[in-house]
């Protein structure tokens, strides 16, 4: 699918991954199907929700394990959303301060996670009407499913105004 424009956040920090968000403009609409669906943005109560303790879905075609092959088919799983405090403790040896611009999710046992090649993919909640809402964008982690390290996601609700500006 040809991309005609990429709008990256002007204040993206490659050291801390703060503002790790972009909007792609495609030449034509993407055909919807089994692996490609519309997704809602987090408005209303989801805009302010901390999400901690909720189960979310992730999906992607990234590596099946760290250093392994990429998946030939869309992979998806459910993972728990962790607190920012848990995330900060896990990544305490880094220079990252986990503000509410981030979300952290994944099993601390290390059994489920996004992996390389999944970056930019969705962290999403499923509502009672079976609609997905994107609450996070896969950003970074320590390897893949490393015990004690949740994955880190850009919190979409913090960028809704910026996203809306890019869509007009």
UniProtKB/TrEMBL annotation:
GO terms for molecular function: serine-type endopeptidase activity. InterPro entries: Peptidase_S1_PA, Peptidase_S1_PA_chymotrypsin, Peptidase_S1A, Trypsin_dom, TRYPSIN_SER. Gene3D superfamilies: Trypsin-like serine proteases. Residues 1-168 form the Peptidase S1 domain. Keywords: Disulfide bond. The keyword Manganese does not apply. It comes from the Eukaryota. SUPFAM superfamilies: Trypsin-like serine proteases. One of its GO terms (biological process) is proteolysis. Belongs to the peptidase S1 family. CLIP subfamily. PANTHER family: ACROSIN-RELATED, SERINE PROTEASE 56. This is Peptidase S1 domain-containing protein. It comes from Haemaphysalis longicornis.
